[in-house]
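Progress report, Aim 2. The chain analyzed during this reporting quarter is listed below.
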Amino acid sequence: MKDASKRISIIGAGIAGIAAAIRLALQGHQVTVYEANDYPGGKVFEWEFEGYRFDMGPTVFTMPAYLEELFDLAGKNMGDYIEILQPEVPFHYFFGDGLVLHFYSDLEKLITEIATKTNDSPEAIKAYFKNVETKFELTKNVFLHNSLNILSNYLTKDALRGMLRIGEVDVFTSMDKSNRVAFRDQRTVDLFNSFASYLGSNPYKAPGVLNVISHFQINGGVYLPVGGMQSILNALYTLACELGVTFQFGQKVERILVQDKKACGISVQGQDFPSDLVISNMDVYFTYKHLMPDQVEPKKVLDHPKSHSVMVFHWGMKKSFPQLALHNMFLSSDMSDEYNTIYKNADIGDHFTYYINISKKINEGDAPDGCENWYVLVNAPNLQGQDWDAMQQKVRKKLLAKLALALGEDVEPCIQFERIRDPRDHARQTNIAFGAIYGNSFDQTFSAFLRHSNFSKRIENLYFCGGLSTLEVVSH
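Predicted structure tokens for the chain:
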């Protein structure tokens, strides 16, 4: 796309859509982003109520270098747009037997913490950390940073090195089996199996190569922008506007125009806008189903099993809980049953993992004095015709009982207000197929390598940067 200036239409002002707009504007193109909502962000947005502020989408931020790259390309200092902090202890992991692990940012402290409190040696833990780093180095230029749908990408030195050392990345075993080889203590296995949830996957079926996800938290670190995750969106939006990107909010794209097998524009509220290139930041499933219903669909991708989803309780708490950190993961006592119930029964059972994010721990203004903003997430099946209202009440009752046991007190009287969101809300608010917020499932051997390409093979000048075309790592 580095030739003469083109008119480019981007559908959707999510993070990927805005990032694409920034890169293209820097190449001298005329970029217009069309967004159905009245605000940018896609899955990244916030909710404020009665003095509390909640991040409503992802809450875990790793690898800020990827964000900084966009500012570097523009010749800007990222620090002028956003302030990013790194907590000393970003995560607490709670286990059913009462064990609490503090997930330190400092690797030596983290290794000592795990080795002291479990039956795994410092040597085994160090070896695992090195192993996931190696997985990242071998795969980043094969399927993380490059398209797998361009033959020449397989002929690079990095790709050949990755293929020659494929045995080291655990493609042919599951995350769980790989972790069982690495650790003796079931609690350590469960801890690292829990990273499968970052991809909406089942650790007992997802290939071991996906243990690479833990690398981002272990070796990359966990951060939090001042002002919450919304600050990332605000910084990118500001940069895009400075670079001349035009945003059209409240403008729902109705159709991608195709002529002679070439994308030639979009239709918005009955008006056509010619374009030299069209980029969809929408979920690929809905891009085809809603915007190009007359075009041939990539059925293998669209029909691929979808990831699980989440149910989220937003609680304004009238009390502070010093035993909790910014991020808190309460691990299931029977993770196998948890995933079997989600994937086989399309339900949430008795043994579920839950996660609590409290941004007030870092951002004082996110809740009134002496109070906390709890974002409580439970893994859930995607939409399959369930009675979600009944499921909400069932899960809420079990969740409160689990919290009372884990924290030693009944937290329900501390809830000043609540808002509950389930896969129906995710599907409606951000056009996610079946409410599966992580896109397609990665529970088959080569799933990570079988994403939809970021360009159309049948329609020239059509590109994708939305769900199913990217590796969806939605960190809670």
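The two ends are 34 Å apart (CA to CA). Confidence is low (pLDDT under 50) at residues 468-476. These observations will guide the mutagenesis work planned for the next reporting period.
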